[in-house]
Design goal:
By secondary structure, the protein is an alpha+beta fold. It is built from five helices and 13 strands. The strands form three sheets. Strands 8, 9, 10, 11, 12 and 13 form a six-stranded antiparallel β-sheet that branches. It has a five-stranded antiparallel β-sheet with strand order 1-2-3-7-6.
Length: 254
C-alpha cells in the first residue's frame, strides 16, 4: 500500500497505528509529540529516539525469552509489530513512590518501596485511567487468573531488566507502564501473552541518579524547548540521538 494511501487504524497523542503490509501485522508510527497537562506539543526528533529505544528494549527482551510484538524497525519513526488481541488492562510496576501513589498511600515523594509493586489500570473511553483489582479483572472477563499471574511475572522480569538497563546510563527507573496482548496460533485455539505497545520515556518515570532531574514526559509543569532535552539526553546516553527541537511534524491521516 502506498504510504500516502494509508488510513490510520488508531491515533493517539504520541503514536499512530496503521495496517501492516503483511498479514497479521501493524505499523507503529512514533510521533514527534508529547502530552503535558492535556496539551500536545511537538518535539522534532522525539519519535525517532523513542523508536530506536523501544526497538533496542524489545529485541533484548526477546533474546531473554520474553515474547514481544516487535518484528523489525522499518525506518526512523516506524516499526512493524504483530497484530495482537490487546488486554483491556495495563500493568504498572512501581519501584519508588511517585505520582498518585504518593497521595493514595500518604507516602513521601521519592521513597524507595520495599519491593516492586504491581498495579493494574483500566480505562473507559473518554475517561481517566482507574486502578482495578484482580477481582475486577476476572469478574468482568478482562483476563483469566492464569493470565494475571503470567502478566505479573513478566512485568516484574521486564522491570528488573529495565532497572539495570537505565542504571547503566546513570538513570533511575521510578516506575513503568506495560501493556500485553494475546498472540494466537494459526489455529486460534491457543494463545500466549506478548508484550505490546512501546518501552520509552512516555511510559516510564525516569530520574538522573546524580542530579535527580526527571527524564520523562511529566518532567515539566509548563512546556518549553527544554523538554527536548529529556529525550535527547536519554538517546545520547544510549548512543542514537540527534539534535531535537520544537518543530511540528505531520503524519499520514492527520
Amino acid at each position: 500500500m502506498n504510504r500516502r494511501e494509508r488510513v490510520p487504524l488508531y491515533k493517539a497523542e504520541t503514536k499512530v497505528i496503521f495496517e501492516g503490509m503483511e498479514p497479521g501485522t501493524y505499523i507503529h508510527y512514533f510521533k514527534d509529540a508529547v502530552q503535558v497537562d492535556n496539551e500536545t506539543h511537538e518535539i522534532h526528533g522525539k519519535g525517532a529516539v523513542n523508536n530506536r529505544l523501544s526497538e533496542m528494549v524489545m529485541v533484548t527482551l526477546g533474546s531473554m525469552g520474553i515474547p514481544t510484538h516487535f518484528i523489525r524497525r522499518l525506518n526512523m519513526r516506524e516499526q512493524v509489530v504483530r497484530a495482537l488481541d490487546l488486554l483491556k488492562v495495563k500493568v504498572v510496576v512501581r519501584n519508588t513512590a511517585a505520582g498518585t501513589f504518593v497521595s493514595r498511600f500518604g507516602l513521601e515523594e521519592g521513597m524507595r518501596l520495599p519491593r516492586p509493586i504491581v498495579e493494574f489500570l483500566w480505562q473507559q473511553e473518554g475517561h481517566p485511567f482507574q486502578y482495578v483489582s484482580e477481582e475486577h479483572i476476572t469478574a468482568f472477563g478482562w483476563a483469566a487468573p492464569a493470565e494475571i499471574e503470567e502478566m505479573t511475572g513478566l512485568a516484574l522480569r521486564i522491570n528488573d531488566f529495565l532497572t539495570g538497563l537505565f542504571f547503566a546510563i546513570g538513570v533511575q527507573l521510578v516506575d513503568c507502564k506495560l501493556q500485553f496482548g494475546r498472540c494466537y496460533s494459526d489455529f486460534h485455539d491457543e494463545s500466549r501473552l506478548v508484550l505490546a505497545d512501546e518501552i520509552t520515556p512516555d511510559g516510564c518515570r525516569l530520574l538522573d541518579i546524580k542530579s535527580q532531574q526527571k527524564f520523562d514526559r511529566g518532567s515539566y509543569a509548563s512546556f518549553s524547548t527544554e523538554g527536548a532535552f529529556d529525550y535527547q539526553e536519554i538517546g545520547r546516553r544510549f548512543g542514537f540521538s540527534g539534535p531535537l527541537g520544537v518543530v511540528p511534524q505531520k503524519v499520514d491521516g492527520e
